[in-house]
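Hi everyone, sorry if this is the wrong subforum. Our group has a chain we'd like a structural model of before ordering constructs, and none of us has done structure prediction before. Sequence below.
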Amino acid sequence: MEEKTLNSVETEEKVSALSKFWLCMADCLCGTANGLITGGGMSYFFVNYLGLDKGLASIVWLIFGI
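Answer:
Right subforum, don't worry. Here is the predicted structure as tokens:
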């Protein structure tokens, strides 16, 4: 077991700052789109189709936002 740890060499891969930036932006876009579609779609469904009062819907958003 010790022999295996002595012979192992750790390698480090370099990733350019531009690639990191675009990956971060793609992740941000996915998260924002998911939040808007899920949150907005569910609010629209509950208020317009199930008849939930708009005031109660806003209270629900405040509770789950905290």
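For your construct planning: The mean pLDDT is 85. Helices lie at 2-7, 17-49, 54-65.
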